[in-house]
Amino acid sequence: MVTISIRRAEPSEAPLVGNLVHDLLDELSDEKGSSIDTVIEAADEALAESGVIALIASDGAKAIGVMMLNECFAIYAGGKFAEISELYVRPEYRSKGVAVDFLEHAQSLAIDRGWRRLEVGAPDQPRWHRTLGFYLRNGFEEVGPRLRKLLS
């Protein structure tokens, strides 16, 4: 039986957060993502921001997942809301309720902070159809594609 705990990461835990997010990015990009140093540097910057929350899932002392939440504001959302920018669970812990625990924790945080919704961008389809299905099963609804423009 897996006993999972979820807690907010401390700013000093940027290397831990960065390593978990790096694993996610490697998986999404077939290991063509940013260097570990670049990701840890970004995690350090993120954890210093007041509107960014990193959650860590642990099995005992072992970190097994991360969720990054970013506070946003939009008129269409009726005010403040949160975007899930990263959600990663180590492969051997998937389908064991860890991601659902993350979502429940995020929802509690959202209610406490007065956020009106949680939003997430699902990865490319159909390759990541299981990810989309997970969010749909957990109360999210599709609202259209997300676009981006990279700035140098």
UniProtKB/TrEMBL annotation:
PANTHER family: ACETYLTRANSFERASE, AMINOALKYLPHOSPHONATE N-ACETYLTRANSFERASE-RELATED-RELATED. The keyword Cytoplasm does not apply. The keyword Acyltransferase applies. InterPro entries: Acyl_CoA_acyltransferase, Bact_Acetyltransf, GNAT_dom. Transmembrane segments: none annotated. Keywords: Acyltransferase, Transferase. The lineage of its organism: Bacteria, Pseudomonadati, Pseudomonadota, Alphaproteobacteria, Rhodobacterales. Residues 4-152 form the N-acetyltransferase domain. This is GNAT family N-acetyltransferase.
